[in-house]
Design a protein that fits this description.
Shape: globular
Helix content: 25-40%
Radius of gyration: 24 Å
Largest sheet: 6 strands, mixed
Number of domains: 3
CATH superfamily of the largest domain: Thiolase/Chalcone synthase
CATH architecture of the largest domain: 3-Layer(aba) Sandwich
Oligomer: single chain
CATH topology of the largest domain: Peroxisomal Thiolase, Chain A, domain 1
Length: 525
């Protein structure tokens, strides 16, 4: 290692924690306590006395929890006003800098990359990054008598970077009942089905085949929320238990957010690692990395793909000077099938790849640990890389709605720190022509994508369409319009002609034809 700059960053410790409601050792841990448990494990993993490491940590970084990811989010059991420092207190650290990252599943990988770069610039010597969710416990105990109070008034220095929601949700999407992730991803998924020209049953089975290996990985993971191996047919078949959430997604294919999980990673410079006595067998190098952002939903040239995610993976591999075929371990963010298949399409990976495409088990099966899932993926990747020295692993982390993508390529092989030049790649993505859209649409149009969401209040049809002049719009089917409901349930609604009319509340309504729109006009807002 003498030829490497002593400020070269290395990942030296990883840790995970979990807390299950249905087990005898259930501890009712808060998110702070879960993160602290994972942080202790990461510190212990580096092979040096924990108190020695804790005293050297100069920076702590917390992944933002779901209960603090939007301005309207609430914490029924309370939360810390300085999550990173609350965790630091529990492990005996007193860092000079505490950071709370922005929302999004890209955050773990993006922050590992950022903080590795900070170490390379001598802005940090030892950094601890962690995240946790206690969503299961919060939901389980929110209305219970004698429920715990997780409120902490810690105070102190905190670099709160905000929610990071700019460009993720437009008001017109909310008006058209596109709320939450399933409906948005379903629009992308159905656009992809049209592109690959598969029938409904063929595509449903292909999604099941894509995710079946994930269930096998989750079944062997002690921290998995749903460690049950399932077949492709079982995943794809709609039943009372595997109910439809948003066409084409039944419940088993949707990210599982009811989890109690935490994960952490410890980074430091080679110089610090040598001074502290961290064995070289623990060192993991970040060979390649990239962070990119997609256009807003309605501006995207092609709803069936995310060029940003593909470009991020390809560029990270280029920086690492590694071909996708040479990777031994892969974890692709899997909140919904298209988040995986999109990168597979771009990199030429087969869904049946014998390496499997997850080291943790994926978000529907391991668990969608809020914004922190990919921290678990990094931890699992590190363990595998140490067991196969010289091999390479890739972690792809997705945020928003195929909106933000961060990639890391890891190995035990020593390498100097390399900047990714992600800015040049981002500039090329930004330069691609955007689709013009309109909030108010009237006249004949063509269906570009669609979904039907299912909930306690019934079904809601959502259409992305194109007017005759090419402008894109959002619309909802009219309640009680059986003909339109049947059209959206047909074998392939994409490409079908529909009639759209704007309403006074800014909500467009769509019908199978102009006559149906007139007959149902009294329902217009």
């Amino acid at each position: 290692m003498r030829q490497l700059d002593p400020q070269t960053p290395v990942l030296v410790g990883v840790g995970q924690a979990s807390d299950f409601l249905d087990r005898p050792d259930y501890r009712q841990l808060s998110a702070v306590e879960l993160a602290a448990s994972a942080a202790r494990a990461a510190i212990s993993d580096c092979g040096v006395a924990p108190r020695v490491i804790a005293g050297q940590i100069d920076t702590v970084v917390g992944i933002r929890q779901f209960e603090n990811s939007t301005p309207v989010a609430i914490a029924p059991l309370g939360r810390s006003d300085n999550y990173p420092r609350s965790v630091a207190d529990r492990i005996g650290a007193d860092p000079r800098r505490a950071i709370l990252g922005v929302s999004g599943g890209q955050a773990p990988q993006q922050l590992v990359t950022e903080m590795a770069g900070a170490i390379a610039r001598s802005a940090s010597g030892v950094t601890l990054i962690f995240g946790a969710e206690a969503i299961s416990t919060v939901r389980h105990l929110a209305t219970a008598e004698g429920r715990p109070d997780f409120t902490e008034r810690r105070g102190g220095q905190l670099e709160d970077r905000g929610y990071g929601l700019q460009g993720l949700v437009a008001e017109t999407e909310t008006v058209h009942r596109i709320v939450g992730a399933p409906s948005r991803y379903a629009l992308f998924e159905n656009a992809r089905r049209a592109r690959v020209k598969q029938t409904r049953s063929e595509y449903a089975l292909s999604m099941g085949q894509l995710l079946e290996p994930f269930t096998a990985v989750a079944a062997g993971n002690v921290h998995a929320a749903a460690p049950i191996e399932r077949t492709a047919v079982e995943l794809a078949t709609v039943t009372e238990r595997n109910r439809m959430i948003a066409d084409p997604y039944p419940r088993f294919m949707v990210s599982r957010d009811q989890v109690n999980q935490g994960a952490a990673v410890l980074l430091m410079s080679i110089g610090a690692a040598q001074e502290l006595g961290v064995p070289e067998s623990k060192w993991i190098f970040l060979h390649g990395h990239c962070d990119l952002r997609e256009k807003e939903l309605l501006a995207r040239p092609d709803l069936s793909t995310s060029p940003a995610a593909i470009a991020a993976a390809a560029h990270a591999l280029r920086v690492a000077d590694v071909e996708a075929d040479h990777l031994s371990f892969i974890d692709l963010y899997s909140c919904f099938p298209i988040a995986v298949s999109n990168v597979c399409d771009g990199l030429g990976l087969s869904p049946a790849d014998p390496r499997r495409l997850s080291v943790s088990g994926g978000l529907p099966f391991f668990g969608g640990a809020g914004n922190n899932y990919s921290m678990h993926a990094i931890a699992e990747t590190v363990v595998r890389l140490r067991s196969a020295p010289g091999s390479f692993g890739l972690v792809g982390a997705n945020g928003g709605y195929l909106s933000k993508y961060s990639v890391g390529v890891y190995s035990t092989r020593p390498v100097r720190w390399r900047d990714s030049e992600s800015g040049d790649v981002q500039a090329n993505l930004d330069a691609a022509p955007s689709v013009l859209s309109t909030e108010m649409a009237d006249g004949w149009a063509v269906v570009e994508s669609y979904t039907t969401t299912y909930g306690p209040a019934g079904r809601t049809g959502i259409v992305v369409g194109r007017l005759e002049d090419g402008r894109r719009f959002l619309a909802n089917s009219i309640d009680g319009d059986v003909e339109m409901q049947n059209l959206l349930a047909d074998e392939q609604p994409v490409g079908e002609s529909v009639f759209v009319r704007s309403g006074r509340a800014g909500r467009n309504l769509v019908a199978a034809n102009e006559e149906a729109m007139v007959e149902l006009a009294e329902q217009l807002p």
